[in-house]
Specification:
This protein is α+β, with helices and mostly antiparallel strands. It is built from seven helices and 22 strands. Helix 1 crosses helix 3 and helix 5 crosses helix 6. It is globular.
């Protein structure tokens, strides 16, 4: 039987492929807390010498009764000052491409629906802001996750991570990470091939190209590049707003009362009206009722959506709806997740990378940020002012890199102006 040359299958070589030109980014790009620091205005520039934050810890003045009829005046007492110190921490985001990839990307829409090199360059600033926001959640060591207590060890892959406080939410697929033991001894580095972090309360996992030898439950997952033994990154919320009496804060001993932030330990209980009210009383006690009333108007709550869900669940015990005609065809009993959110009259900001077991109460006016000069910026390179050709032996290759640079650190001028409710339960309905 002769071939039917008129069929569509026979004419396939003449057909054009159809491609959807909308490209969605399958990556969480939250930057909420980092934006709050940016909203303060221009940051202070710093050098290799430490950035200093003077603190007045006592107004001074000796007080007591005395006898003005022949008695002695008591010696006066001057004001007391302390200072915190910090220095910017350098950060880098790098991308890579070949000469041919750049040429094809520059060919226009008839050849490529998007210029992948230009897109990668434009996304580097977004990536840096996103990573700063992620790492602002932790302390100042660069630890971004903890290996789950039930992890079997022996190189098992994927690696399960502890749910509190972050699971795998501070890790991206294709990150390079470091694994360290509880004494910060390096077990090794690994490339994250994939991560599973779709639940707010279930166990997250990361799939590595090779699990570092000796990895066991309780080990820490750290940002690439921080030093073993004494890992150090810029300061995050767990460092800045902390009630601990041990360790240090900007070089000051945390045993000093003025370094300890007001806090309420929920001890595994859910977020309740009582816990919020008890915490706010502690804020009033720390600052004084008058100061709290006059200066805390711009404070905001900062937490994970799981804790907002727990808060809203407090209000569903009794619900009354008055209907004018006896019908409720348009009634929606679930509050909109996009509506403005407030707790006790203060704005509540939600962030999907925030600690799942904490609710912070932050005074934006006292936040501090310092940077090295001209950060953040694209690093100027020898090729076209931006690109860095890789070198193999004595020759340049056609593989190029581009780098986005920043050097930053964060702090607070007043540890009593912000506080935290910690040790919160994660709602049971989120644990799967």
């Amino acid at each position: 039987m002769p071939v039917n040359f008129g069929s569509a299958a026979q004419n396939e070589s003449l057909m054009l492929e159809t491609i959807n030109r909308e490209i969605d980014l399958l990556e969480n790009v939250e930057t909420g807390l980092d934006k709050r620091f940016s909203q303060m205005g221009k940051e202070d520039e710093a050098s290799l010498l430490t950035y200093r934050m003077p603190l007045q810890t006592e107004m001074g003045g000796s007080f007591g009764a005395f006898n003005s009829d022949g008695g002695a005046y008591s010696p006066g007492l001057g004001a007391s000052y302390e200072q915190g110190r910090m220095t910017p921490v350098e950060l880098i985001v790098g991308t890579s491409f070949t000469d041919l990839a750049k040429r094809i990307g520059e060919s226009g829409a008839s050849v490529s629906i998007v210029n992948p090199v230009d897109r990668a360059i434009n996304d580097m600033q977004k990536k840096m802001a996103k990573k700063r926001n992620m790492l602002l959640q932790g302390s100042n060591t660069g630890q971004i996750a903890t290996v789950n207590a039930a992890y079997a060890g022996g190189g098992a892959n994927p690696v399960t991570l502890a749910t509190s406080s972050f699971g795998a939410r501070l890790i991206d697929a294709h990150d390079t990470i470091q694994v360290m033991d509880t004494n910060y001894n390096l077990r090794g580095s690994a490339f994250v091939q994939d991560k599973l972090s779709v639940s707010a309360g279930a166990t997250d996992t990361i799939t590595l190209d090779a699990v570092p030898a000796g990895t066991v439950a309780g080990d820490g997952i750290f940002v690439n590049g921080v030093a073993a033994g004494t890992p150090l990154l810029f300061q995050g919320l767990e460092y800045i707003i902390n009630p601990s009496a041990t360790g240090e804060l900007y070089g000051m001993n945390r045993a000093l009362s003025y370094t300890q932030s007001p806090a309420f330990n929920a001890n595994g209980a859910p977020l309740t009206l009582g816990s919020v009210q008890s915490f706010l009383v502690r804020m009033q006690q720390a600052r004084g009722v008058e100061t709290f009333t006059s200066e805390a108007a711009k404070n905001f709550w900062y937490t994970h959506p799981a804790q907002w869900y727990a808060w809203e669940a407090n209000g569903f015990a009794i619900q009354m709806n008055t209907l004018s005609n006896g019908k409720a065809s348009s009634f929606d009993g679930v509050p909109s997740p996009n509506s403005p959110k407030n707790i006790a009259g203060f704005e509540c900001v939600l962030d999907s990378v925030a600690a799942i077991d904490k609710v912070y109460f932050i005074d934006q006016k006292v936040l501090v940020r310092c940077r090295f000069h001209k950060g953040p910026q694209m690093l100027p390179g020898p090729l076209n002012g931006m690109y860095w050709p890789r070198i193999s032996g004595n020759f340049h290759t056609t593989q190029n890199d581009a780098y986005f640079y920043d050097a930053v650190n964060y702090g607070s001028r007043n540890s009593w102006a912000s506080g935290v409710i910690f040790g919160l339960n994660i709602p049971g309905s989120l644990a799967n």
